[in-house]
Amino acid sequence: MSEHAHEHSHHITPISTLVKTLLLLGVLMVTTIAWAQIAPSALKDVPPALASLINNLIAMGIAFIKAVAVIMIFMGVKYQSSIVKLYAALGFLWFTLMFIMFADYGTRHWEAVRGWTPGVKQMAMPRADEPYEEGMPPRKDIKIPDEHH
Amino acid sequence: MTTHVATDEKNYLQEGHTLASWLLTKDHKRIAVLYLISVSFFFFVGSIAAMMVRLELTSPRGTLMSNETYNKAFSAHGVVMVFFFLVVAIPAIFGNFLIPMQIGARDLAFPRLNLLSWYFYMAGGIMFLIAMMSGGVDAGWTFYTPMSSIYSNGQITLALVGAFVVGFSSIFTGVNFIATIHKMRAPGMTWWRLPLFVWGHYATSLIVILGTPVVAITLLLVVFERVAKIGIFSPELGGDPVLFQHMFWFYSHPAVYIMVLPGMAVISEIMACFSRNKVFGYHFVALSSLGIAALSFIVWGHHMFVSSQSMYQGIFFSFTSFLVAVPSAIKVFNWSLTMYKGSVWLASPMIYALGFLGLFTVGGMTGLYLASVGTDVHVTGTYFVVAHFHYVMVGGTLLAFLGALHFWWPKFFGRMYPEGVAKWNALLVFIGFNLTFLPQFVVGWLGMPRRYHYYYFAPEFQVYHVMSTLGASALAVSLIVPAFYLTYSLFKGPKSPPNPWAARGLEWEAAASPPIKHNFHGVPVVVGDVYDYDAEAEELALRGMTKEEA
Amino acid sequence: MISLKKMNQPQDTVYEQFEDLAQQQETYVLGMWSFLVTEVMFFGVMFMSYIVYRWKYQPYFYALHKELDWRIGGINTAILLASSFSVALAVHYHQKKKKMNVLMCLGFTNLCAISFIVIKLLFEYIPKWNHGHYPGPGFSWDNPYVPSHIAQLWFSLYFGTTGLHGLHVLIGVILFSVLMYLIAVDHPSISDYLPTEMLGLYWHFVDIVWIFLYPLYYLMPK
Ligand code: HEM
Ligand SMILES: [Cu+2]
Fold first, then answer.
1. Nearest residue, CB atoms, C222 vs list A13, A55, A124
2. What is the ipTM of this complex?
3. Is residue B376 part of a domain?
4. Pick the residue with more confidence: A140 or C126?
5. Number of domains in chain B
């Protein structure tokens, strides 16, 4: 049939490659754990936002490399046809589309809402309270009860 | 493109007559027939609920049922029609039957998975039926939290599990189609020789495998919240209920294309055959399916313009929604041009296809009204939206479904139905449909909210609602009539020739009607182009001439 | 007589819908991968929910992640990595048709899977449940720095995500047991290495989920 005229015998991944991959995964695992242990003291003097960025990049970068190693070697995608490679990437690519959500969550606080109250228990995604200006109708302040009432 | 067709052989329908030979079959054609029967049943259930809704709305005071019963009626209608009819009907019946035949394969790649998907469909369906009988569901087909997770009465949990299970049924079908289309094509069947029916289903399957799991897990999280207090969308715990809407529409906008792409796939086939012409801009139509599949994932927020989604995101989604109209329009223009210089033959499938063309266009255009944030804020939650999506889903998918049913009926069962009745009936569908939903645009624009069981605040709306209910009754008649004449034709209809429409494509040219178990004798080899109709030669042939002579 | 040394199944059956073995194998691999695409999206929702809320409640999430013991999570990570390796090895041996080796590798994998679940239950789920750290009306919370409802949200995410992952591990245990049985008795449905390869793909995916889950929940919510 059309796409597999080339009769290729299946690839057998040598044990040495598998072992090397396992070692790589082990080393990466130890690295990410070790970093998590020393990070709080190592990043003491770094501004929190930057520290958080560094932390995330390191942890997720290592996880990403580990995932690629598993996919490529253990799952054998390296030795598969390009259509399998495409499908192996597809789900991960499509997942990133969900980040469009942050165009919502990241901008909600730009829109101030008059008399905004964050709710009894603090709502997930608050908006800013619009400052009162002359001539605006009086706003209805709602008293926020205490958490432990 | 030819293999010898022997007609005296056992066809797939004769390969066993016991119940077990049907319930345990692995033949894609038999599974398609199983789906045909069960999908028709669910369509019937959904229609009953629709009639309840329509009857209730004939009076402004809501006299027939309580508001709770009304909520349950429209929820049942929405859930059954969306999850058990529209998403499933064309792929699982016609896709199942035709994709292997159109690409020259003996079966789908995973026949057992195919059968399993039917069982999942039935299991999900039965769960939902039980939920409906034993308390009902009143949260609408969208199951918004916290309505569905905290406040709703009735059997939401069971209904959600049913929807989850039926989601896996579509995933299995999608996986099957993808593997089949990639790996099982006959020699010579290149991608650019694939019928557009196959292209459409490939795009649909992509959406299914990328989107369906998202809604499945989202619904499951609501189940978790109801039974195990895992409150990810719960505002009580500082969660954001709008996150549910994000996740839900991440699937459910693409899902509207799961519903309509297979319909478009059908229309391409019918247009080509009954215009006796190549589909105009074949490559564009094929690629626009993939374009729709990709774009449909970045427009979901247009359903959330008035949720607490931020205005900036609204603007983004408004813009992308306009983009998604482009590939849809490409298709509509290309189908119209397919008829140009063709030789249009107004058989019943073609009448449905022409109906599709007009109604889908109206539906799509009104979609653009709704995609404009400013307009949508005015009409969202009104009957205008209801009319919009019925124009695309009923005017689009249902008409394509009926067209496909009439086009491939002889292929399925080897019998012809009374064409005269079928033609008039197709016209009645068109009229009944417009009478039902055109007034809804008007009344929606005037401010009639959807999901209300009365409108005593505006009794002047009654005339529109009565028109709509009358139209719905006509529509109901026009759906019962085919049920009768098609069933009749199974037993008494004249035997059809192998290719009654003189259509092109492996399923018509290289296989018997009904096909044999393995579809073809041997493996067909494809040499010609797809849709090699020649309207000119055919018209000349009617006058007894060849092209050279003329 | 069933021998453990070599495979006695009818070799390399091609099902009737396929032309040849190569086509059949490629189709199965592609089919499995398209199924894994759905699995990625499936867990994608759980990760996305986590990302949204961690972004929103970052300081709380930092305090909350200390509720989890990174050592136990680390042990489970190592267990899953090892099992991933051994299942890749099983495929290797199956391709070479060394039955005993396949069974041993699969057995080791299954053992890992089971210990993963046992560790998770004994050292995480059950103690948390006993402490009342399960979301719901019975939730008991005494950390003054983190509001109780946010803690419940966090535990919801934790139980939801690891629970779904654990469910996948459990399904893996069942499937591995069935596969080992079928291989051991030379069942005709195991005509080539593809069943092992398919299950292997599934199992590696379960591992990949954990590869992301572990740092996100146990190590670095800052
Ligand atoms: C031209 C492309 C389209 C655009 C721009 C579009 C736009 C929209 C918008 C903006 C809404 C939200 C209205 C509101 O709730 O305020 C909507 C609703 C809807 N559309 Fe479309 N649409 C298009 C095509 C389709 C198609 C092809 C289908 C189905 C086959 C469809 C099915 C639906 C459904 C089911 C709803 C209502 C969902 C609900 O709230 O229950 N649309 N559409
Ligand atoms: Cu939409």
1. A55
2. 0.93
3. yes
4. C126
5. 1
